[in-house]
# Entry
Amino acid sequence: MADLVVTSRGPVRLIELNRPDQLNSMSEELHSGLASVWEEVADDPGARVVVLTGRGRAFSAGGNFDIMNRVQRDRAFRQQNVDEARRIITGMLHCPLPVIAAVNGPAVGLGCSLALLSDLVLIADDAYVADPHVQVGLVAGDGGALVLPLLVGLTRAKELLFLGDRVSAEEAVRLGIANRAVPKDKLLDEAMNLAGRLAALPAQALRETKRVVNLHLEQALATVLEPALLAERDSMRSPDHIALVEKIIASRESRRAGGEG
# Structure
């Protein structure tokens, strides 16, 4: 598919979000692709490690406001969106291959969740992560509420989720959201080198270590995921969210009209 590109580089599968002109925000194809790709790479007998990144200057800007608008109006599409979000989260956590996120630029909303759900995170030194669900009237249900408290603690997780503030690369490393910051021009090379080191390790030992460490996340998965997703689904129809999305879309259209004038 055009919006999600998977490339084989020896034992490494490079997964690239491929909507650079839209800062790799979600399309229907990209969202559904992220829901299915984890099983596909897990079933690939030659794959040992995954590197996840975005093409262009962003890792992922997260939600697409036109899709949010459709989600508000279309009940079946809304449920499909939530079901795919569940598959993205469980797919990443249950994928036996280690997943390295190469965060090459802003990782916002679902983009932030993709980084949080990865096993190892390298972040470009000029990039940032942010989860602004609450700022657009949504519950932070598709990853942030599940993973962030385990990484940074409850108090700091609440601050980041309530306020949606940007977390710089340096701060992300300090908080434990990322493993290390890397110069942007060296990020993908660093990620592929790290992937090569992982691919050279005994496969069973590496996969089983990921599985047992992720049992900590499985406990949260069993108790947090469904309430979080259902709360986010319900918030998709909240008056606050509808009004905020309408305001953002109207502002965007006004800017476009002004540019055309």
Q: What stands out?
A: Residues 239-260 form the longest helix (22 residues). Strands lie at 4-9, 12-17, 49-54, 99-103, 107-108, 120-124, 128-130, 167-168, 180-182. The longest strand covers residues 4-9.
